[in-house]
Amino acid sequence: MHRVWRTIKGYVFWTYERGSFHYDVMVSLILIFIFVGPHVINFKDQPTEFLPGGIKVTSNGAQGRIYQVDAAQVDAQDEAMVRVNFERLLRPVAGAVRIERIEAVRDKSGHIVAYRAWARK
To answer: Three-state SS for 1?
Structure first.
């Protein structure tokens, strides 16, 4: 049992000499994680895409996409006007989409800096 713990301790603290069996096992495990891990493990990171006009797009899986624009581009006083202006901004770059919900993005002091919309085609 003592030998098993010594082996595990060697792996954790990387004490094996280069070229030894255990060193090769550790390097192989790291390479397997690097090349196979992203295909097996869902890290839930989505690439962000920027459309013309500074529109930020993130995939929301099968539920559609999330669009974000600066508040200055939307320029609205109420929620209905935000929706209309947001759709007007999206139409040339995203085509006909149905906006399911819109949420204001606020900075630390509570000022609206952008709007985020969940939409489907």
So the answer is: coil
